[in-house]
Design a protein that fits this description.
Helices cover about 80% and strands about 5% of the residues. By secondary structure, it is mainly alpha-helical. Among the domains are: about 55 residues; about 140 residues, Tetratricopeptide repeat domain (Serine Threonine Protein Phosphatase 5, Tetratricopeptide repeat); about 100 residues, Serine Threonine Protein Phosphatase 5, Tetratricopeptide repeat (Alpha Horseshoe), CATH 1.25.40. It has a two-stranded antiparallel sheet with strand order 1-2. Strand 1 and strand 2 form a beta hairpin. The protein is elongated.
Length: about 500
């Protein structure tokens, strides 16, 4: 303790001892003057002790670097007092930011919550801060930042040897990897989390890990294993009266049942999830249930009802800042517009969805959306836009390392240039595609691109080169057993010879 605290506590104990002591005597009131005098002398004595202590242990002390110079040096006691005051101030500021973040989180303002959790951590790093920062980022689909927060928290939990928090961070990292479709990593982390939480945590924490494992099995199309895990988690959630968990399970169970083509049974699960999420103010589950019902209604041919459900889901996703849910729902609405031959054909919605996936750095979904947009450009004969689209997709395929898809897109670019009458460019990109196909040993693709190259040469009036390419194409088609294509090539060669 600090000297002043010692002084106060010591003085109070002494006075209390005097009062208790004299209380045993019936005539203590007669000795009131003596008691008061004794208390005064006790205070004087304690004060003198404090002064003596401070004189021996001051916050600073004199040092003499030279015979003529006297300077002050801090003592350990002075340092400890300053450190304690600073630590209290830092803790107070960290608490203020954390409490503000909690209010934001409860109000579903997840982006604001993340900012305040980050300020709390910057002031004083805590496992609680990292856990909730990662959770806030997860809700707005900022998975890279969530992963960083959870990894920092995991490191801190291991430094503090806190097994429970270690389990929490491992489980949350598993959930992040599942959202990024890194399913092997997700399963590894979730199983590790469950193993730890079985040692040191309650059944509810364990049930959440079991639920996540079930979701990974669902993403792997292991429906029976998924259903088993979901049921185990649901039993615990019902026992613990954890309604949000129950709603999530009913949503996921509905997906399993829907995938088994039991549509009416699945519908009941989604409706139950929706009802619980409304009752207990769980908006993300509410939006997921609406989206699942929309998909189900679409399969049943109730297109207008499906559209209403998707629009309601999208409104919630936007309200809570869940950009992944927003992007996914935009795709579903765009699909309806496209199949229903709406004037825009869903193009604007696909483009908006693409921007969201770019924000999330979600490469697989960017590729899917770009390919769909490319089909719309093709349908509308928007050739310049189609060229830009193909070049953009190629850059993404370079990132994923899918060389065959790069070759396919190069071939598509060649075809577009043919339609525009730019034969030199068409030949350049078609030959680039052929180089990849031959390197990868894809005989059927080689045949197709050589056929296109032969046509390009014919447009340029280079009939000898055209025949060579067609003969090569014929050999590849014969190799892969494409008899009808061989016949087509034979007819083309015959027409050349007739010329």
């Amino acid at each position: 303790m600090l000297p002043f605290i010692d002084y106060i506590s010591g003085t109070l104990v002494a006075i209390l001892s005097i009062l208790l002591g004299v209380g045993f005597f019936k005539g203590w009131r007669k000795k009131k003057r003596i008691v008061i005098i004794t208390i005064i002398f006790t205070i004087i004595s304690s004060t003198a002790s404090l002064i003596e202590h401070l004189s021996k242990n001051p916050e600073t002390e004199s040092i003499n670097p030279s015979p003529t110079i006297n300077t002050q040096k801090a003592t350990i006691e002075g340092f400890e007092r300053e450190v304690e005051q600073a630590a209290n101030k830092i803790a107070k500021v960290a608490k203020i930011y954390f409490f503000a973040a909690e209010q934001d989180f409860l109000s579903h303002r997840f982006e604001d919550a993340a900012k305040n959790y980050q300020k709390s951590i910057s002031t004083l790093p805590t496992m609680s801060g990292y856990l909730n920062l990662g959770g806030s980022f997860s809700f707005i689909s900022a998975y890279d930042r969530a992963e960083n927060a959870y990894n920092d928290g995991l490191k801190l939990s291991r430094e503090k040897r806190d097994r429970k928090y270690e389990g929490y961070f491992l489980g949350n990292l598993g959930a992040i990897y599942a959202s990024q479709e890194k399913l092997d990593d997700a399963l590894e982390y979730c199983n590790a989390a469950l193993s730890i939480l079985k040692e040191c945590s309650n059944s509810l924490d364990q049930a959440r890990s079991i639920q996540n494992i079930g979701s990974i099995y669902l993403m792997q199309d292991s429906l029976n294993m998924a259903k088993e895990k979901y049921q185990d988690a649901l039993d615990i959630f019902i026992k613990e009266k954890y309604h949000e968990g129950q709603a999530d399970i009913y949503n996921n169970m509905g997906v399993i049942i829907r995938n088994q083509n039991k549509l009416e049974e699945a519908k009941k699960q989604f409706q139950l999830a929706y009802k619980i999420s409304i009752q207990f103010d769980y908006p993300i589950c509410q939006a997921n249930a609406l989206g699942n019902l929309g998909y189900l209604l679409l399969k049943q041919g109730s297109i207008e009802e499906a559209l209403i459900n998707y629009q309601m889901a999208d409104s919630i996703f936007k309200q809570i800042g869940n950009i992944q849910g927003h992007a996914k729902t935009l795709n579903n609405i765009a699909f309806i517009y496209r199949t229903q031959k709406k004037p825009d054909g869903g193009l604007a919605l696909y483009q908006e969805s693409l921007q969201v996936y770019k924000q999330m750095v979600n490469i697989p979904n960017q590729i899917k959306i770009l390919n769909t947009i490319g089909m719309i450009y093709r349908e509308r004969n928007l050739l310049n836009e189609l060229l830009d689209n193909n070049f953009e997709v190629i850059e993404l395929y370079k990132y994923t390392g899918d060389s065959l898809m790069i070759a396919n897109k190069l071939g598509n670019i060649g075809t577009v240039y043919v339609e525009q009458g730019q034969y030199e460019k068409a030949l350049y990109y078609s030959l680039a595609a052929f180089d990849i196909f031959i390197h990868k040993g894809s005989s059927k693709d080689c045949a197709g691109i050589l056929k296109n190259i032969g046509i390009i040469y014919s447009y340029q009036g280079e009939n000898i080169e055209a025949l060579k390419s067609l003969e090569q194409a014929r050999a590849f088609y014969k190799e892969v057993g494409e008899g009808k294509e061989v016949e087509k090539i034979d007819e083309m060669i015959y027409q050349f010879h007739k010329k």
